[in-house]
Every structure is written in structure tokens, then in C-alpha cells.
Design brief:
heterodimer; A: 158 residues; alpha+beta; five-stranded mixed β-sheet; 38% helix; B: 753 residues; seven-stranded mixed β-sheet; 19 helices
Amino acid sequence: MIKLTVNDKIHNVEAPDDMPILWVLRDLLKIKGTKFGCGMGQCGACTVHVNGQAIRSCITPVVVAKNAKITTIEGVDAKGEHPIQIAWKENNVPQCGYCQSGQIMSALTLLKDNPQPTDEDINNHMSGNICRCGTYPRIKTAIKEAAAVLANQAGAKS
Amino acid sequence: MNTTKLSRREFLSYAGIASGGLLLGCSSINPTTPSLPKFVDVAENITAQPLNIFVAIKPDNTVEIISHRAEMGQGSKTGIPQIIADELEADWANVKVIQGLGDKAYGDQNTDGSTSIRKFYDKLREMGASARVMLEQTAADYWNVTIDSVYAKNNFIINKSTGGTLSYGDLAELASKQPLPATESLIYKSSAEFKYIGKPVPIVDLHDMVTGNTTYGIDVELPDLLVASIERCPVLHGSIKSFDASKAFDIPGVIDVIEMPATPETVLYFPLTGIAVLATNTWTALQGRKALEIEWELGKNKNHNSKQVFDQFKDRLKNSPQTVAKKGDVAKGFTAASKVLEAQYLVPYLVHAPMEPPMATAWFHDGICEVWASVQNPQAVMEQGAAMMKLEVDTFKVHTTLLGGGFGRKSKTDFANEAIYLADKTQRAVKVVWSREDDIQASYYHAGAVQSMKAGLNKAGNITAWQQQAVYPTIASTFDHTKNSPQDFELSLGFGDFAYDIDHVLMQKAHADAPVRIGWMRSVCNIQHAFALNCFIDELAHSANIPTEKFILNALGNNRDVDPKLTYGFAFTNYSEELNKHPYSISRYKQVLNKLIANTPINETLPKGQGWGIAVHRSFVSYVAVATKVEVIDSKLSIKEIHCTIDCGLGVNLDRIRSQMEGAMIFGISIALMGNIDIKNGAVVQSNFHDYPVTRMNQSPKIVVHLVNETENPPGGVGEPGVPPVAPSITNAIFAATGKRYRELPLNQYLSV
């Protein structure tokens, strides 16, 4: 039995230690916003946060997340009102939508570590996330808009 | 009588109706014999009309609109309801979009060929207008006035003289008892009156997509569901000599191991030979599959090597071509030339690689087989499932989930047939999960193609003769294994529909066997045809020392509509459209190019190592021109900027047209830079994104999209036509930047990308 905290909710799950977090989330806990894309950490569709760090859940054994906090797309803001989700919506970013959970989870850690990213910073951070539909130009715009909103919010608080 | 404050209950009571469950079933409109609407549950969709789009209205004023086509990122799940809602005068805030089940009554549901809007625009408007008239008539009857004394606005019918209003929700039940208006009696909005058509309406699943609330094929859950992963024979038409599943059964959670049926000679959408491992979850099924010990008999294709076969293709084009179509006498034209140029182009095998690999769930229960799958074609699931299981088509109830990308792969519903087969064997619900390796190695491939081009130029720089040859395995081989050369429907994709005005033209093809399953991928044979055509015209322009854009405009000749049948004797299929509705217009061809030139700095002075290249192509009855700026420094290629102009006729959702163009540019970059499937000893070599790379953000340039004539002409295709001009614009730009001509894709064999 492994104790996992997913989106602030505690789960005790019967899973072999080597089962990737992705399949524990999807098949055992039925938390399905996180997607499977390649199974070898190549595409980023499965990106979630473990203790605030973006990881590829398709290659990360669940034992790594024992007693750690996992955050998935469902834990960002269920109402879709996080500045990054709003920026995504305002730019009509998704096409098929399948990779977008992973894109958003990657973008969140970018902005956490680098609140005012340049184009190159965005490229470097986001190039592990494939979008076969080709939404990259809009993702870039949305990240910059979200960065501006988050900076304003941070300014207002300080 | 003041009716504005009449409650729904009062209204219904007055009308003699007090039951709930209101529904306006708007069945297909037969122009000669209007009939009563069918009272059916739209979600169940059990009617059998020749073509139906259903509108249902609830008492709370919700307007349910069915989208009958698959949504895979192209936006038709928003565009289709936009059209209906506009003619219906529905309030978009009240519209709820429902995904239609697989049903012939909708007409063709195969969501490919860039057809969702262009094939259904008229019918969708008709459905919206018809429903609106029924609501108007109901209100007019109630007010005892003629129908022209009322009008529809924003989910209400309004009485012109009293200003009284009745909501659609209140009217729906009575309206559903109205006779269907005759099609020819319907009055449509003028384009100036459009509220939703031509507007950038946000996609209907946007909120769910950014909160993780969507359901794709992989997300389907059912009680006691088994997950299957299948080890398929690496070579098409190989068979199983023997297998040992004992180690798989040692893994806790592995429930069953089942041998799939042998691949038939004509593959259709039937399962491939293989062994399925069924388990309680995906990870366990994958582990069980790895533990299988299988000895294959690799069969007749085991010696096929695509690189060698491409050399054979070149020989065949030279030594044994078959004439497809012609005009004049090319020999005469070449004699009249002052110089003759020849070039050969190669586009390798390609695979779609949608972000969601194929996924399907099937479950036999209560005398039916219910399927949930990320398919582009739910009716194919029914038909091919019925053929495989020897059951009636209507045994199958097929739900199309959202698709995590399709690009043509998911029109081929073999993965649904796998799920159906296993669900029958186990008598449990089974979800077949394809890994990325399965997706890359067991697809229906875009066929590798070789093309030979030859043209004569006179001293003035005019083309005196043009000879083009193409060879590749045909898609038809998937449906009839005896087919072994490019078919007219494939040559109609940018080959036989030849735009340039040249006196002497010869078009030829050659024999090619299919070593793998061949399918269609976003823009299909236009990929290779547009590549050869646009690269070669650029070569000719440079040889004639004339700017490419001027050379193309000159070669296109006078504004006219081309009929390839009359001009070349070519059996042009025109994307299944009539030429009088969707002509092959040289004028529109020129307009997209002229708009591109006017809006792109293609003649700017550039630093060393940079260059612009252009290409233009008509496909799916739309016209697209692309200009690309590249930089090549120390053998490192960067795509700096892409401009694209599209004339797709009337645009329904302008934002989705732009997004499709953005996506098509990036899809085209993938093809040009990295797309390559090798077949070695009959098996596909590549397996995942590390060796079948696709464009990533750091390779993605600034993209500028310009729309042309977006309020004129009937709607054309949008999802595909952006792709074909991209690769040639890139190779032409590389020539401008470096003087090097690359005629074989992908470019990462020459340059780092």
C-alpha cells in the first residue's frame, strides 16, 4: 500500500513500486486529466508536479511519490480561473487538447522559476512538450500573458 | 391579449399540452414529400433518414445541437453548431453541443478529406432554418397571425405588431408537431445577418481542456474493464509459428492471453496478426506483453527494404512508365526548347503520430456491441465490425470520443475491430490501448513516393513542355490487395489537376507494391505532388533567371477555370465536388500568391545564409500560398518565419481557420525536416519520438496567416490544404539561402535541424 497525496487529497493505493505514476493516477485512482503520449519521457503529455517539480509521470515509478505531493491538471484550478488557464482560454490555445494538460503543467513550473521568461527561455523549457497539432505560437503568447498577470498579482500582494 | 408574460405552463395549457420532455426532432428534409418529424430521442439517434442533423430544444430553453463529425482539433464540433445556431437564431449561450453516434442517417461521418464544413454547410443551414420556421409557425398559430408577422431572435419568437415574445423552450413541444417545411420554401439569412458564421467563436471544449475534464478514447471506463495490449507481427502478412504466454500469466493482474485472427490478404480495417495480453490495468498489460515469447514466420514481405525499392521506383519511371494523361506532344515541346531540365524528388514513408495513439473500447451487452473509440469514422466501426463478426451493422452502437489528434490515422478503425474481437472472446468490456511504438510501427502509412520531372524552357523563359511522373504504393491496396499503382483519386490530389498553361504536357505513373498498410495522412498525396511541383517550378525559375513568383504567375497563364478532363483527358475527382460549384480557378490560385507576395518581405535584403522560398497549391478545393524564411549556418537549418495565405471560400470560424493554418505549417515543418519511416526487412525501423521526431517549440517559427476572400464562394477545405506548400517553400528557401538544392526529404539527412 502506497500513500499518495494527489491534489491535496490522500489516497492509499495498492500498486507495485515500479508502476509509473501515470498509470497509478489514470487506471487505479481514475484521475484522467493526465495523458499518455509516448511512455518514454519524450513528449511531455504526462507531465505532473511532484513536490512542485514537473516530472514525466510515464517514466517515474510511483514509489518516488511516496509521501510526496502530486499535483495534476485537475489540481490547478477546477474552475479554470488560474491565470494560466485564463490565458490559455483567451488565446484559444488548444486544438485537439490532448497534450494541453502537460503543456500547462510544464508552463506552471517555468513561470514559478522564471516569472518573466524570454522567448528563448520559453523554448528551452517547453521543448520537452510535443503538440502535434502545432499550438506552439499560441502557447508562447499565453505564457507571456499569464506571466504579466501573475507579475501584477505578485506586485499587488507585495 | 398580452402574451409576453405568459408562462410556459400557461402556454402549454392553452395549447392543450402539459407533458414534459419537449423535443423538436428535425429529421431529414425531403424536398418533395415533407413528412412529420420523428419523435425520437436525439441522443439515441435511431431514425434512418438519408441525412440528418438534429436539433432538440428543452423546456429550459437549452438548444441541443448534434455535431455528427469527429472532433480531433480541427474545430468542427464548434463550426457545425455555429452554422445551425445561426440559421436557427439560437442564443449561443443556450447551445449545448452533443456528439452524434455513428449513424448512416447523418450521411458521411468519415471525418477526413477536409469535408465537415464544405460538404455539410448547405445541409446544416437547412436544418437550422427548418427548425426556426417550425418555431415561427407555432408562435404564429398561437397568436393567430401569419408567419410573416413574427420573427425569430436569440431563442425567442417575437410578434412584430404586439412585441410579444415566446421562448424556444416554450414553443418546442408544439413546434415538434409542425409538418417539416419544404426545403425550397426555406428562407436563409444574408451573409450580413450572420451572427455566428464567420465569427471566431471559442471552441466548445475549451474550458474542459484546460481543467482536465475531457474524455478521449484512452479515458473510457466501464465496470470490470480489461485493458489489452497487443504484440503484432512486425512484418505485414507474417504469421505466428508458436508462442509461450506462461511468463505473462505469472504477472499478477494478467487475466488472459488471446491470439488475434490472421491478417487477411486485403487488410481493410481488420486486426493485424498478433497476441493480445489482457489485464486489469494498462501497466500490467504492457508488462505481460513484454513477457510473451513469440516465434514469427515473417512471410512474403520479409525482404522488403524501402531504400532499395525507391531505387527500383526510379528505374521503373525511366523504363516502364504508364501514361495517365496528356496534352499535345511533349517530344515536340522538348525539341522547341533551348534547354531541358530534369529532376527527381523523393518523399519517404510517413506516419501520423497523433498525440493520442489509437484507443478503442468495446462491450457486448443486451444484444448489442457498444463501442467507445477515438475514431474519425464511427460508421466504419459499425461496418467493419459487422463484417468481421458476421453480425448486422445495427448491432453496433458507436460513441465517438474526443480524438487526441487524428490526421487520417483514425479513419482506419482497425483498433476498434481489435477491441470488438477481444470483447467477444472475453465477454467483458475490453479497452485496446496502443503504445507509441504500436502507433509508429503498425500504422496505415503515407506511401513513400518518387517523382521525375522534366521541362523545356525557351529563350524567353517560357515552358515549352512539361513531363511529370509519379510512383508510390496506392491507398487502394488497403481495400483491394491487387491494386499496385497510383490511382486516379490519388493523382487527383495535385498531379493530374495541373494548373500551368503549357502546350505540351505528359503525365505518367509506374508500378508499386505495398509492403505495409497504406493509408491517408493529412493532405494525402498532395504532400509529394506539391513538393515536386513547387520545387521544380522554382528550379525552372532560377534557370530562367526570373523571380519564382513572376515565373509561376506567368506559367499559370490567363485567368480561367481548368477542367483537367477536357485539358489532359485526366479523370479528375475534384475532392468529390462538382467543378461548377468548386471550379479549379487560376484566378484564385493567383490571388493567394499575389496576397502572399504583397504581405511578405520575400524580396528584402538578407544576411548571408538566409533566404525566402515560396510555394502555392490548390487542394481540397482551397488555395494556399506559403513563404518561408530560413537560415542555414554551419549546416544548421532554422526556420525563421512562415507566412501563409489561404482562400478556403467562406470561412465559418475564422479563428479555427487560422489555428489550422498555424498547425499545418508546423505539420509541414515536421515532414520537411524530420519525417521518415524506413522499412527494413519488411519491418518499420522507427518506434517513438526519439527516432520519429516531430516539430518541437524550439523549431517552431513565427507564423503569420492571411485570409483571402473569406466571405466569398462556397466553403472549401481547411484542415489539410495548409500542409502541401510548406515543405517545398522550405527547400526553395534553402536554395535561395545556400545555392544547394535538396530533392529528397527529410532534410535532417543533410542538415542539423
